Amino acid sequence: MIDQLVLKKSTIRPWRLDDADSLARHANNRKVWRALRDVFPHPYTIQDAHEFLRRAISELPTTNFCIEVNGGAVGGIGIRLGQEVHRRTAEFGYWLGEDSWGRGITTEAVGAFTDFCFDNSSLHRIYAEPFANNPASARVLEKAGFMLEGRLKNNVVKDGKVLDSLIYARTK
After folding, report:
1. Does residue 142 contact residue 134 with C-beta atoms inside 8 Å?
2. In terms of pTM, does the model score above 0.85?
């Protein structure tokens, strides 16, 4: 899918096995974990990084990518392709290490990655489902052209709390 997207603030590229140390360092953060689904472990160990990288590198088509800043893996971005009647739809997700927050990296990456997906696939809809207690993620999506479609009340349980989630989508 993507060989490499070189942006002003980051590069989006396939994951590599040598990303493990940087991945574990940036992913092992409770603030990052609180905004993600439970499949993303906390604490995030070097073993978790190695297991994720083995899966990400072997999956076809490649749907999970590294966000690299200054030569280091500082986050991830990817899609989950829909199936059957949803075959032209993909769910979208991303995360960034706390050291890189507030610098416009995620907004730039989300916009460029979404554009790339629309331009290089048969997708017609890409959606994201951030937790309602994460206004920064909602702002990122809005800046990247995603529209709020709705709020799912009491939709998720994260960190022992029942939360609403939001549905944001962008269409081709």
Report:
1. no
2. yes
Report CA dihedral (61, 115, 12, 149) to the nearest 10 degrees. -90
pLDDT in tens, 32-71: 999 999 999 999 999 999 999 999 999 998 999 999 999 9
Burial of residue 30 (CB within 10 Å: 0-12, 13-18, 19+) is: exposed
Contact 171, 127 (CB under 8 A): no
Q: Is 22 helix (H, G, I), strand (E, B) or coil?
A: helix
Number of H helices, E strands in the chain: 5, 8
CA proximity to 61, closest of 14, 109, 8: 14
Maximum Cα–Cα distance across the chain: 41
pLDDT per position as a tens digit, 100-118: 999 999 999 999 999 999 9
* CA separation for the pair 88, 108 (Å, rounded): 24
